[in-house]
Amino acid sequence: MIKEIYYWMVFYLRKMPTNDMPEFNSFLLVSLMAFFNIATIFIITKYLFNISVKLTSSETTLIALSFGLFVGFICYLFTYRQKKEIQEKYDNLPKMRRVKGIAIFWIYVILSFSLLFIAGVNLAPTVGS
Predict the structure, then answer these.
(1) Measured in whole angstroms, how far is the alpha carbon of residue 104 from the centre of its chain?
(2) Which among 24, 51, 85, 115 has most CB atoms closer than 10 A?
(3) How far apart, in whole angstroms, are the C-alpha atoms of residue 81 and residue 72?
């Protein structure tokens, strides 16, 4: 699924005339969305199980940066490193399968950003609480 999301991200970024590195930019955006999804799961789990974690700002930054690099490395292995194979595979999809892939892509993109925002605003504790 992540490979198809990557393919459609490249597809749309290639349509932008100012984008001279659509494959790399797609890799970064897919990594960011995967990180957002994992962060959303963490926020929801923390809320549901009433987990309290006390971290300083520098600890939070270090954990987020380390985890972000890990997610980026995993996405690199499954997307950017295999960009030619992904391109060949998804270029030859039947028309109905392409339409389904585009719909899934847009649902994934919209939900990745909106669910993180909704969970972060409504479920994450506020500063000073």
Answers:
(1) 14
(2) 115
(3) 12
